[in-house]
Amino acid sequence: MKNFVCTTCGVQYAASTEEPVNCMICNEERQYVNPQGQSWTTLDDLQASHTYQNEIIEEETGLYSMTTKPEFAIGQTTYLVKTESYNLLWDCITYFDETTIEKVKELGGLDAIALSHPHYYSTQVEWAERFDVPIYIHEDDKQWVMRPSKHIVFWSGESLQLSDELTVHRLGGHFKGGSVLHWSQGNEGKGILLTGDIIQVVADQE
After folding, report:
1. Average pLDDT over residues 38-56
2. Stated pTM of the model
């Protein structure tokens, strides 16, 4: 039994003996099916290829971005938010290895994982199992969870307070349960809003 990963969106599926017929995430209108056809891999195969590594950058005091090089799937970025009393992984990327795990441990490890929307679900269960932490997903997006887990907590309502400084707010839009993270004390107390792509800034014509 293997937990197959869609190579287009990077989402991992429940264990099966054969590759899924199609990817439910990619076959939905907010994503796309690779014009070359559906293909699958596994996290083990990605690690064994020795092709990828994760780049971790401190973007702001206590805020670390993490991206996979070369780019995998749709090029997602995850953020580690490090506060005095709570470390949160906001959104997930598919690839990680022992080097990544050690770097995260050096930063204090994780207390929880929270997701903005299904395009970031990736290998969230693998991350949660390695750090033995809960995964917070809004219940309105429950149908898009491709790999169930005891670590997943489906929250309801409009806001979820994770710590004194971190609050998740459901905004909907891109997905019904689409959420953003507000870090009240980030940016020297001015606050930081991590939005996934639930909120986007685009150029106008002027």
Report:
1. 97
2. 0.93
